[in-house]
Amino acid sequence: MDNLNYAVIGNCKTAALISVKGSIDWLCIPDFNSPSVFAKLLDDEIGGSFDIVTDESYEITQQYVKNTNIVSTVFRSGDNSFEVLDFIPRFKNTDNTYHIPSEIVRYIRFISGTPVFTVRFNPRLDYAKQPTKIVDEGEYIKSFTTKGDYDSIYLYSDLNFEDIIEQRQIQLKEDAFLMLSYDEKILNQTLERQYFKLQKTEVYWLDWTYNLTSYAMYNEEIKRSALVLKLLSYQKTGAFLAAVTTSLPESLGEERNWDYRFCWIRDASMAIHIMSKLGHLNTVKRFMKFIIDIIPDKDEKIQIMYGINREKQLQEEELDHLKGYKNSAPVRIGNAAYLQKQNDIYGVLVDVIYQQFIRFKITLETSEALWTIVRGIVRIVENNWHKPDKGIWEIRTEEKHFTFSKVLCWVAINRAIKIAKVIHKKKYLNDWQKLADTIKDNILENAWNEERQAFTQSYGSSYMDAANLLMASYGFIDAKDKRYIETVKQTEKELCYNGLLYRYKNEDDFGLPTSSFTICTFWFINALNSIGERDKAKKMFDQLLKYSNHVGLFSEDLDFKTKELLGNFPQAYSHLALIETAINLSEGELTEKEEILGSILH
């Protein structure tokens, strides 16, 4: 594997990664955060995979079925060809509920000739901790653990079971299917039933993308990124995952390997902000319910992250038996960052709550619950804004007075004031405005580095931080303000390398960062656009889009030199920033419909 050349499929309950060669190398089931069934991604020897194998004469091509989360992998050797359509079913039932089973369907479509292949079905349940036994049960192939915690999965197919288990060559003469389920099925699993699921799932995704807001440019890139964000939303609770994987390294051979199958308040709130812009309100409503559910008590500490089922304790452990992606150990599950204090999350959260009040009709009960959360956050900010924290980048050792954290504390109070005005709660305005002014004055006095002529990473620091590029987009400072323009220029001077950005260049817990954090480059492009350097921004954006993988997906990081995708994948942060940048660059451009209308009128 030279790169993260994977397509992702999912149904807002679980997800899988399909390699460019058609192998399922990552699947956690029944839910996103369940133990893995296939983890070849993290150990190509013992992790387990579900592969369709052909000889070397076959050319393999892969793409998404247009405007869906269904992956098409075509195998072609001369006149012999077939297609594997991989998907996880998602569609509406007749009672308007969603059909989101814990299963993955591989619909094998015969195209021409006499194609042959081998099925390599090699599950390794529970992160491959113990052996997995595979037996032919007549109705299905059952795989189960024989030691440790018991788990099992069921493979249904109209192909010969012995051919699958013994990995014999199969000649395809007509359409066939492989369907892996966490649950034993009650109904008979036929080819016709899988075809029905395929058609219903395709219609669901086509309908979903059709209802996205259209823009003047980059609509295809926006659609693909929006489909990724939708896939990362958890239907059951409304939580938003940062990514579907764990322990994909930010830099090969280092220790920056973390489990991202959790809901970070910051990442999720930013994603929801984008989804609301794109017009998908149900996803937004579910997330706001998630927020209300996890913050029930007025004095309860707000964590930076939660489990997707509202878990509040996310103990971290290492799986020493797995060698890691490209031998980059350790493999971690759980994430100790949940214990950190990061003051920026308050601003992000109140900002997204403010969007709900001004964009959508929300029930009285919901608005009252959100107002209670807002007032609680104001109290927390009032008591904590002046204290050091771990910052947006989750520094695990020293706490500092990070500029971005302070700015987002100001955002929290600023948006709380706006909400109070919307709902006519004037008695809070004077005190809150004084607090906002105090925070802002403190930032302007202490975060500005006169020698550097820029806002730096933390008070008294000379280091630059890409997060400070967001100061203008959050409304803390005008984009045309000389201090912001100089900050953008100094950020480029210190952090830009080979067309990509470092988060920062000072050493942290693990030394100097050696890869580019993808979202930072998007932030920089937005900043360039906001200060009037549109042509430069667009050129840089068009170049950055070329660094996605073969199906348009981004991970968390990019290698500065090789442009290899690194870090957890696909990354919500990267894709939400892509959408926001595309929207900002599209502003002022005429849409195709507007151009046609204009030509008719003239």
From TrEMBL:
Record keywords: Hydrolase
Any one GO MF annotation of this record: hydrolase activity, hydrolyzing O-glycosyl compounds
Species the sequence originates in: Draconibacterium halophilum
Domain GH15-like: 217-582
Protein name: Glycoside hydrolase family 15 protein
InterPro entries (UniProt xref): 6-hairpin_glycosidase_sf (IPR008928), 6hp_glycosidase-like_sf (IPR012341), GH15-like (IPR011613), Trehalase-like_N (IPR045582)
Keyword Cytoplasm: no
Entry-linked PANTHER family: GLUCAN 1,4-ALPHA-GLUCOSIDASE, TREHALASE
BP-aspect Gene Ontology terms: carbohydrate metabolic process
Record SUPFAM superfamilies: Six-hairpin glycosidases
Pfam families: Glyco_hydro_15, TREH_N
Taxonomic path: Bacteria, Pseudomonadati, Bacteroidota, Bacteroidia, Marinilabiliales
Residue ranges constituting the Trehalase-like N-terminal domain according to the UniProt record: 7-147
